[in-house]
Amino acid sequence: MPSFTSWLLRMFLTYIRRTRLVFGSAENMRNNMRELYLRPQSFNPPKNLDPGITIDRIDYGAWPLYRVSLAGNSAKKRPAMMYIHGGAFYREINPQHWKFVAQAVRDTGLDAIIPIYPLLPRPGATATEVIEGFMDICGRLEQPIVSIVGDSAGGMYTLATMQQLLQQHPELARRVRCIVLISPVLDLGLEHPEVVRRGQNDPWLGLDGLRQLLPLLGAGLPAHDPIVSPLYGDIETLPPVMLLSGTYDMLVADAQRLSAKFQGKGTEICTPGSFKNDRFTFIEQPEMVHVYPLLPHPEGAEARETIIRFLKQHTGLVSEDNYH
């Protein structure tokens, strides 16, 4: 049974914050995107993170870039995870993202690399260009990227970037020991009947607004192109994948389709329920909303611990000496 805190948060999303008013309307979505374009949000890390954490600004090209590490860890070649934040492709990184990253760094010992990537509708913000930027960071940083983690829009970029690394830069892809997808966007077409059905009752997301993203992100790509819909990309050579989603999130339907694909059932079938094998771990949490692992309730805390155990399992024995 869901905790009282998670129920209260769902009520807040539904009746007070009313985020769905933005995502549920094409016009409201366009207006909100325009407003944030004219008055950009801050991407600076909060000042009240764990005192044992150090954050350095290490800008890369035109992108701001941050390194988050344990205080005193200054080795330039330390293994790191890349965290790709969500925000519907047009909203900036927020304090919940930073708090999760700080916890992951503290509990895994990995550094974290945080790219502040271009957001829609700015120049350079198409999916192709942004994924190229992520791959370039993986190649140019002295620190090896041994895991990629992303939520929502960042989950799409995480899986698509991994697939493109495998195709274009296999030597970099071999360094990545695992990836984690938190409530990811997997099919930007958003047309599967189960997505449509669940979208009617999602307290956070809405179809009409989110469907405004494909023309901007894809810049002419078809909806099933793996760059914008990594559900249709190759999964055979991926490193171990963890995916977490809640059943009150309309995107859980596409998560179920990816789970079905890992089970050899294709991409049109939704296979509900958690699933695990040696390549894929799917955690489907009943009655949880979008990006629930980042939220301040018991189920979110449990999910964060699960992610950290997965990261430690697959990267805990990584030594800097492997990459010198």
Automatic annotation (TrEMBL):
SUPFAM superfamilies: alpha/beta-Hydrolases (SSF53474). GO terms for molecular function: hydrolase activity. It holds the Pfam family Abhydrolase_3. InterPro entries: AB_hydrolase_3, AB_hydrolase_fold, GDXG_lipolytic_enzyme. The keyword Iron does not apply. Keywords: Hydrolase. Residues 81-268 form the Alpha/beta hydrolase fold-3 domain. This is Alpha/Beta hydrolase protein. The lineage of its organism: Eukaryota, Fungi, Dikarya, Ascomycota, Pezizomycotina.
